[in-house]
Every structure is written in C-alpha cells, then in structure tokens.
Amino acid sequence: MSVRALPAAAAERTAVPWAAAATASVATCLAVASVYLTQPIFPEIAAHFGVADQDARFAFTAASLAYALSFFLFGPLTDRLPLRAMGSAGAAGLAVLLALAVFAPGFGLFVALLSVAGIVAAAVPSAMIALMPRLAPPEMKGMFFGLVIGASVAGITLGRSMTGVVADAADWRTAVLGAAALNLLSAGAALTLPNLAAPAAAGPAAKAYAAVLGLFRGAATVRLLALGTCLFFGYLGVATFLTYRLQQEPFGFDAASIGLVNLAGLVGVVGAPLAGRLVPRIGAPAVVLSGLAAVLAGIALLGLAAHPAVVTAGVLALFAGVFACQPAVLVLLAAAAPPGSQGGASSLYMLVCLLAGAAASAALGPVWTFAGWTGVVATGAAAVAAAGLLAAAARRPRSVSA
C-alpha cells in the first residue's frame, strides 16, 4: 500500500463505527417508538374496542411492563450472543406482532399482542446498547452511549407523537401498520452491523443471569439502579397522564395536537450525545445532577401551565433533563460493574427504569382520579427529588467520570 493510500484507509476504518452506530441508533429508535405508540391515541383505541377512555391506557401499561421485564431476559445474553442477530430478530418479530395487533377482534387480544410485542422489542435496544461501548474508542464511550440514548428519546417522542398525527390524518390502524413496516426495514438494516465478539467467556446462560443478579450486591450499582427507578417513575408518570391533561380545559387538544406538543421531546436526540461529551469534562455525577434539575423544572412548568407555549417548554425541559442523565448514569454503571457484565448491567438499568415507568402508569391512576393533575405532578416531582438525593450520594472524584 502506498503512503498516499494510508489516510484514505484510516478514514474508512474511522467511518465504520459511525455508520454502525447510526444503524444501531435508528433500530433502537423504531423499536422504542413501537412500545409508546398507543399513548397519543388512547381515545381512538377506546372508541374502536368499546372500552372506557382511561382503561385504554392499559394497552401501554401492559406493553411497557413486558418491555421492561424483558431487559432482564435479553440483557445477560448480550455478553454472550451475537448482537447483530439479536437486534435483527427482535425488529422482525416486533413488525409481525404489531401487524397482528391491528386486526385483533377484541381489546384483550390487542393488549396481549402488544405485550408480546413489548417482549421482543426489548431485544433491539438490549443488543444496541451493549454494542455501543464495543464500537466506541475508549474516550468516546459517553458519546456513543449518548447516541443510543438519544435514539431512545427519539423513539419515545415519535411513539408519543407521530401516531397521533397519522391517526388524525388517516386512522390509528394506519399509524400502527406504518410502525410495523419501519421495523421490518430495521430488521434488514441490522444485519449490516459488525459481528463483534462478546467480551465475556462463553458459558452456561445461568452463569450470565447470576452475574447480573450479583449487581444487586454492590452499593454503587444499587444506588444507580435506584436513581433510575425514581427518575423514570416521576418522568414517565407525568408524561403518561399529560395526554389526559391536554384533553382537558383550557387546552382541549385532539390526538394530532398532543402529538405535536410531544415532538418537543426530540431535544433529547441532540441533548443526550452532548451530555455524553460533557461527562469526561465535568464528571458524570455533575451531568446527572444538572439533568435532574432540568427534569424538576420541566415538571413544575407542566404543573403550572395554562398556555400551550408553557406546556411545550415543560416538555422540552423534561425530556432534555431525563436524557442528559442517561449517558452519564450508564458510564458510571459500566465503571461500577464487574468485567464481562457491562452489557447486562446496562440492560438491568433499562429494566428498572422502564419497570418504574410502567408501574407509574398504573399506580398514578388512583392519584389522577382523586387528586387530578396536581396530584400527579406532585408525586412525579417527589420521585425525581429522591433521584437527586441518590445522585448527590453517588458523587465521586472526577477521575471516575469517564
């Protein structure tokens, strides 16, 4: 090879991780969006199946609960199985199940199919989150974690917005079938990802699950898992009931308007990678605390809002804060986890976060009934404040920030 050819070859090698990271991020975005796609169309689902408006939320609760629990199923396997195959199979299975759910003859079967869809959907982000630190140069792990977290932000935001827009223009079935088609394309794209070797030695699957359960014995890892639990209980609890709040006066929004407001959450697509880049500069705990402050500010704005502009600002702060926290917490968790368990640790963190979100969707139902939006906002703010106390306790010298 000539001397002049060397820069081109080096550039090609540099481009490969970025292309793979982009593919992994898009696959994550679409899978996550599929879990959240019922949120802006609760009224349309309720009308179609003849159930109460508030009961329609159980379609999301069941899917998100199944999705969260499945991170424990797939997480430990990411340190042993080919990530490319796991991600592609999950996206393909998700596409099939969404298409079947559209034609379900009753609400019970619809919820059941979405629950199974939530299970297979978890295979995609589990694989992609585990892939990122293997792709990234050591100094860019926070940035790569931020990319996939940003993709999950986009997925949550698109799931909570675009189905409402499409349902308003066509119908809710068209919106869900569109999501199925995109996941099918994602399954094919995932097959182009590099087939990187797992860092852990091959062994019985039971050993992998035992290693992940062992993370509950470490004070640092337990504190970080508890932080994520409190954050997501507060954040997703408020975000779920925001749909009902925006249907009330003084707003009276329809599905399309609710979807457009939620698009403000796309700030996380940019914010999460930027927060990841800040980790080696100011330290992961400082990034987490700053993000939690933004979340509390967003909840306060949503609690007081009487104008769409204030609601949009609140959603903006809420999502920006949550997904500024995530890459920093994942960096801390990867540093705290034993060697060979980083993939399982990341998936366990996603499990507890999303499980908390699903629990909030169910548990805040009585709060909404008896205390309304004020009660939901107060409960969410208290949970995020608890996360702040845990983050303050997790402060370490700057040397552990990267």
UniProtKB/TrEMBL annotation:
Where is this protein localized, as stated in its record?
Cell membrane
Q: Which UniProt keywords apply?
A: Membrane, Transmembrane, Transmembrane helix
Membrane topology, as annotated? Multi-pass membrane protein
**Any stretches that span the bilayer, and where are they?**
15-38, 58-78, 85-104, 110-131, 143-163, 175-196, 208-235, 255-275, 287-307, 313-336, 348-367, 373-394
Q: Which GO terms describe its cellular component?
A: plasma membrane
Q: Which SUPFAM superfamilies match?
A: MFS general substrate transporter
All copies of domain Major facilitator superfamily (MFS) profile, residue ranges: 20-400
Family matches, as InterPro entries: MFS (IPR011701), MFS_dom (IPR020846), MFS_trans_sf (IPR036259)
Answer yes or no on keyword Membrane: yes
Which PROSITE patterns does the protein's record reference?
MFS
Quote the protein name from its UniProt record.
Answer: MFS transporter
